[in-house]
Each structure stands twice: as structure tokens, then as C-alpha cells.
Amino acid sequence: MRIADETRRVPGVSSAALVLATAANRQALVEAGLWAPGAEGPGPDDLIIAVSAESEAAARAGLERAEALLATRRPRAAPAAAESPRSLTAGARGAGDANLAVVSVPGRYAVAEAHQALSAGLHVFVFSDGVDVADEAQLKRRARARGLLLMGPECGTSIINGVGVGFANAVRRGAVGLVGASGTGLQEVTTLVHRLGAGVSHAIGTGGRDLQAAVGGVTTLQALELLGADPRTRAIVIVSKPADDVIAGAVLEAASDLGKPVVACLLGWRGKVPAGVRAALTLEDAALAALAALGMEARPLAGPKSTSRPRGAKSRPSSRRGGVHGLYTGGTLAEEARAVVGDAAGRFVDFGAPQYTRGRPHPMIDPELRNRAIAATGDDPSAAVLLLDVVLGHCAHPDPAGAAAPGIGEARARARQGRRQLHVVAHVVGTEEDPQRLAAQERTLRELDVIVCPSNRLAAATARELARGRDER
Q: Distance (Å, rounded) from C-alpha 120 to C-alpha 149?
């Protein structure tokens, strides 16, 4: 990502990408106009440097810059510095009291690395995607047999004893414990809990498939047992993408036996919850219910009092045509928003899905692919409202709102050329303690005439009402 960013700064270069030549990445390059005709040779293990520029000379300069950066050697460690371990086993031997390994390698190698970490007696956080579900189930059963947690694969977030892993946000410690088969779902609830005045004991990510029948909720059940035994945790929140009915039922029955108040937000699941468990329909509702379980008063979040018209719009249109197009970096946020928008939903894309991340950084790290889609939305007459998430936190882009700004401006310009209006609505997932600072990111968006809402649920509801031609909610 750093090399692509620096290549784009070469005068005359308009776009650049460095990706593995997987089928998905090749298609993405075609759609972005970065695929050169006749470039059919590279295989999935080859690196492609693609540059779009205003002239051949500028393109050549961009390519030379990228190649020079790739060839730059990292500074050598000081002579006294310890040699880096070459395997997880070696790393575990020299890691003192460390008890957690983070695995972030291409999916086909992740299984072996995770097994190696388990053999070394380490809990494992697997960020990688592309792991077969049968391998996931086997890894989790083996971890459970050894008294260890296997978080993932595709685990985006965890907060263990106040330490963030993956795309975690900076939140205060407190009495709410969470377990989530959903990375951005955990981020949304933990940051809302923080912003509403409470804190988080632990947030244990499980990977998005944990509540599928093939996996059986192994890690979720382990996490519930741990949170139930943790004296610091006084209320528990379960968050998940759509779950298998039988597995969801078993998880909720286990939760009801913990003797602590439990809030369950299983998106799309409408089954009966047992006594001691409260069902929450949205992530925002889950955060509010967690505070209520602690005896804290929390007022429902309020959206903007009125929506503003995009710059250049002289009057409210007599009628609006088109729907809400949601371009997301988080799958759970996209699922929740699509459900709230309902029949006003147009194109919804989760750019964090495996087909968009295989061989390239996650869009929370490198937003280039989504930014191109944002700009292209201005050409789409079916789009009346553009709905976005902006996710802050450790490991995320240092300025995600600023990175989205050129795409938003281009989308608006293209819509004006087509004599259409395009509203943009966004929600920023984060806190003031995150490295990017919540207020600064929201200010950047508002300066672009983006309607900023304090939760994903409110952003989706606002977008829905705009698509229906209502300026007041």
C-alpha cells in the first residue's frame, strides 16, 4: 500500500496498484482501467505493478519509482539486536510469557501456521481469509481440546485484557464483555459502548463462520464460558452475522445459563430467545441494552436534525428517483444497513469480502478499490444516495475520511454532469482515542457536505428516507 501511495504521487500518475495476479485482482484491474491489453502472462503468485498516467513518460516514471521502492532494502538491525525468529515455534520459545500468536499470511499457508502455534501452546488469532471451512472446524476442535482459543479465520478484531488485536479501536476498560462472529460488528458495538460512557472487559472475535453448522459455534461457546467466569464482566453481548438456526439456539441456551445478563444481536435471526437473554435487532440497540443491563442510563442516539442538499443544489427536487447504494468496508455493517434500508436498497458491496481481499490489502488499509467504486457511483442513474462506512482504529488507514474525499468529489461531479443530485451519508466507527480521532474524521466528511450519523443504523435510516424523498425524519 505504501509503495502504491508513493507511486501515485509521481507527477502525471493518476492511479497505481500493486497486487498479486489472482483472477479477482485481474478483474478488478480490468474494471479500473489498469489492465494492459495483452498482459496475459502473470500467474497468481506474480506481482503486478499497474500504473495509469497522463503520458507514457509519466507512466514509465511511475513504474520506475515503484520498482525502486520494491528494491529498497530494509535497514539492518543493530549488531546487538536479537535475530528475528523464522518460525512460530522458535518465536514462542523466545517470547517469554507471550501466549497469543497472530497469523496473517495467505490462506493456503494459514492452517499450517495456526497448527504450529497451537502445538506451541499459544492461543491463535487468524486474520487470514481463504481457509477451508473444514480446516477451520478442525483447528477449533483441536484448540478446544488443548484449552486454547482459535479466533478466526477472517477474524478482524479482538480486545483481550485491554489489548487490541487486528482492527481494534481504543476503548476504555469496563464491565461489558463481547463475543462476535463479526469484526466490524464488534467494532461498532465496542465503540458505541465507549461513546455512551461504559467500557469493555474483553471483545473476543471468533471469525465470521463460527455460527455456521460446519463449525458448530466452537469458539463462541468457549468465549461465553470465559466471559461467564470473568469477574470483571457483568454483562455480555453476542454479535453475529446470519447464523445457523440450530447453532444459534445452542449458543443462546448456553448464554442463558451463565447467570449474567446477555444481549444477543444475531443479524437476520428471528428465533425465540431463552430467559436471561435479550434480543437486539441492531448493533446500536445491542450497545444500549448492554448499558441498561449495567444499570446505566443511555439515551437513544439521535440523527442529524435535517439533511443538507449537496453543494450546487438550488432547490429540493419535486421527486427523487433511485435507491441507496452502500459501499462498505465491513460485512456486518453492510448486512445491517441493507436490512434497515429495505426496499430502497440498490447496489450493496462489502469490499472486505474475500473476493476483494485475496492478494490485496483489506479496504480498511488500502481504500483504493472502494474509492474507484465511489467515484463510479456518480455515473449510475439508479443511485440517489451513496451510503458509506468509515472505520477507524489500530491498523486501519491513517486518514480514511481524507482518502475517500477525492472519490466523493468525483462522484458528485459526475452526478452533476448527468443533471442529478447525489446525497452522501456516512457513519464513522471509532472513538476520540483512536489514532485517527473521531471528531477530526467526522469534520472532514462534513466539510464535504456528507451527512454524518452517530451509528450505522441511523446512517442507513437517513439514507432510506432521503431515497424516499424526505428531508426530515
A: 13
